Amino acid sequence: VVAVGAGVASIGTNGAGGWYSYRMSKTAMNAFMKNLSIEGRRHNVLAFTLYPQMVESALSKPYVKGNPYPELRTPEEVAERMMELVDAFGVEDTGRFVNMWSRDDIPW
């Protein structure tokens, strides 16, 4: 099971505040995915959250000027990378919240 995460969902790296409803909904999704990864492992079901950074879309358009990342990715690039990671990840990766490009874990 793969969820699309957001950097603002990390409680550990929240230095800006704001975005209450979006931040809270993504944080709740992270909690769900973590729980699912624990229970799913018992039944050979993997669950991880992938963070694509800012994706070129209508949602991101108003925020492009403040984009902290070196580039915007197209939805097609993001989907391709997600599939690469899904194919590469195994049981040891279940429960991770991962930056899709660096493969670094993001603090919950």
Detailed description of the structure:
With about 110 residues, the protein is of the alpha/beta class. About 35% of the residues lie in helices and about 10% in strands. The chain is built from two helices and three strands; from the N terminus they run E-H-E-H-E. It has helices at about 20-40, 75-90; strands spanning about 1-5, 50, 95-100. It has a three-stranded parallel beta sheet, with helices on one face. The two termini are about 20 Å apart. The model has no long low-confidence stretch (mean pLDDT about 90).
Q: Report on the biggest sheet.
A: 3 strands, parallel
Described by the principal axes of the CA atoms, the overall outline is globular
**Alpha carbon gyration radius:** 14 Å
Strand order in the largest sheet: 1-2-3
Helix content: 25-40%
Alpha-carbon distance between the termini?
Answer: 18 Å
Which H/E pattern describes the elements? EHEHE
User: Mean pLDDT, rounded to whole units?
Assistant: 90
The structure class reads: alpha/beta
